[in-house]
Structure formats: C-alpha cells, structure tokens
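Students often ask why we bother encoding 3D structure as a string. The short answer is that it lets us treat folding as translation between two languages. Here is a chain of 177 residues written in the first language.
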Amino acid sequence: MREHSARVLSYAYNRGASRSEAEDVVAEVFLVCWRRLDDVPDPAFPWLLGVARKVLANQRRSRNRREALQARIEQTVDLSAGDRDGAIAAGGSSTGVLYALGQLNEADQEALLLVAWDGLSYQEAAQVLGCTRTALGLRLYRAKGRLLKYLETTRTSTELESDADRRDALLTEETTN
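And here it is in the second language, the structure alphabet:
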C-alpha cells in the first residue's frame, strides 16, 4: 500500500488541491483503507483513487460551505454604510471574517451561525436556543457588534502594506507639489 501514497498525493494535487490539502487527502485515504482493510481489492490502486476522489469531493463541499458561511455572515452583519465600508476595509476578507468569527464566544457564534449558516428565521433560531425572539434579537445585535469589533481590529498584512503604500504615495505627492 505504501507504494501508492505518492501516486495518490499526485492524483489529489493534480485535481486542484493545495499541497497541504493533497497531504490531507492521502492521510484520509489511508485511514479509510485501514478501517476497511478487508474491503480493499487487489489491485488496490484504483480503489484508493476512488476513495481519494470522494475525499476531494468532501473537501470541495466543505470549502463551498465555508465560503457560503462567510457570504452569509457578511450579509447578516447589517451595518450602516460607513461602518460596513470600514469593517470590510479593516478585515472583511474571507480569512478575516472567519478569524473574527472564531474570536467570538460559543453563544455568539451559535446565534450568528443559526441565522447566517443554517438559514433559520429569528423565531426558529430562538426556539433552537430556548429563548424568546426578542432575546435572540438582542443576542444577535451584541454578537454582530463584537464581530464588527474583531473585524475592525483584524487587518491582514497585505492590507497594512497597501495602507503604507498609499501613505507613501501621498507623502511623495505632497513633497513634489
């Protein structure tokens, strides 16, 4: 079986997985293989690629769910135009939003995710959490505020470099004028 790991890695990598994702695919494939050792046919390689194909599909679905969650969170965080522009500039990238979401406590995350990710109405989400719709509304209001705070303080190095470049360009213009 070990002789196939490099080929499974290559298969995953050639199907668009990053190096680390391809390595995860190999690990998952051989975990499945170990668990189902009695089901592995001879030759094993085609079977291993079939498992790898399914693992890659699962990874794609997970990535799509994360991206959909990020989009829903951005839609759910209903901000005034000025605040929204500042939050997006400060950390509204996919990585920034997911990082900011991860900084929230479990109760805030759960409230936001029930509405943004699971698509529940306020009434349905309140029922899941065992509270009133009004209490959920207040919880979401506070969670959105905390999420915004994390977004405003979470800036990627690219954004900071971009700000520095803009500042340098302005300083250069001022000195030449």
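Translate back mentally: Residues 2-64 form one domain. Keep this in mind for the problem set.
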